[in-house]
Structure prediction request, 467 residues.
Amino acid sequence: MKFTPQHTALNRELFGPDFNWGVSTAAFQIEGAHDADGKGESVWDNFTTKKGKILNDDHARTACDFYNRYQEDIDLIKKLNIPNFRFSISWTRLLPNGTGAVNQAGIDYYNRVIDYCLEQGVEPWVTIYHWDLPLVLEQKGGWANRDVITWFSEFTTLCAQNFGDRVKHWMVMNEPVVFTGAGYFFGIHAPGRSGIRSFTSVIHHVVLSIVAGAKILRKLVPNSQIGNTFSCSQVEPLTNKPRDVAAAVRVDALINRLFIEPLLGMGYPIKDLPALKGIQKYILPGDEDNMKFDFDFIGVQNYTREIVQYSFFTPYVNARIVKAENRKVELTAMRWEIHPPAIYHMIKKFAAYPQIKNIIITENGSAFPDEVTDGEVNDPKRLQYLQDYLSQVLKAKNEGCNVNGYFVWTLTDNFEWAEGYHPRFGLVHVDHTTQKRIIKASGKWFAEFLKKPVKHEEFTLEARSRM
Ligand code: FCB
Prediction:
């Protein structure tokens, strides 16, 4: 089926006055300054030193140098008329050894970022954990060690105590299934471990840590909005043969339901994915009460859809994803299929959980091989992608789904984990040698889209004051 764009009349007003517009980033992907001012080493600092783990052996020691250029980048956010800025806190800037001694320079840095946002009228939305575990804690077992709940609680408490007076929107962790699956099962992300054993324990410890963190935020910053973000992809079977359909159910349980369902009080989806029954042995008496939380919002992050086929040879799930490049569909630089209806389906799926009160799209965006020509970056494919996905968000909203925000991934072209600097996701182009920023055509469109029309009274008042 060919998707027909329906965005000709797309405008901000259609989403309502209370819709939260924003842009999302993550500390490790933009900050650089990897050892500045007392920062400790994270699993990603370490992973990026290993040969062959990252495309072109890229690293993030400088990244977008946001650590030193945060004012310039927050100015850009303001210039783009983006009212909300999502960023994460680097654990090892605050606690270089993971726990214990606090690095005041790290706290001072985030205070400067938060204060500068507020001075510019940009609302900070903070993710506590976007994948950069302190290396010393990984050496003690990382997320596979149940003590991580205490370690993570200490870090969250520090964030809440220091930033809670000004930060009113929090996300405890970013995409638990990605950092646990890619980091502890497939070994393609930091810390690079693989196998089902550590994966099952990690899942449970992450769930307990998310809830512990959320409870700390609720107690220490009572008047704030607390959420968590979840990656998701629309999953469809390749054919309607029962074994492909069953394979799709298993993959859906793994990539879309594994974390949200326990956190909503529904338990792990083990019935639909028996391979994960090993989680049960990590559930200790009393844990049930500490596995769920009443979130103020759920961050839904969608980019694509996956087509699934039964596979005898794939262990645990007996399913395989049919690569998008073998399906003759349009791709992004991540080799992800461009499929705007996916975001509509995912909003519908999350909105169907009665416990979810409020959905914010905390990430959506696309990477393409953008080029600078005469000082400009023309990126029609990203522009089209944004408009087409936004039209689908609007469709879900108009059908009554409780979706109340949309954050673009991302502000500047940055360090895309195992893919290095190859995929460019930004609304703003970055030359990674000179650090020069250029707003892309898609960024200019978004700025125009977000521009609030001048109300008649404001206009006359302003005009009068000029007289
Ligand atoms: C998400 C991550 C984010 C970024 C985008 C492209 O899975 O949360 O850090 O890498 O994908």
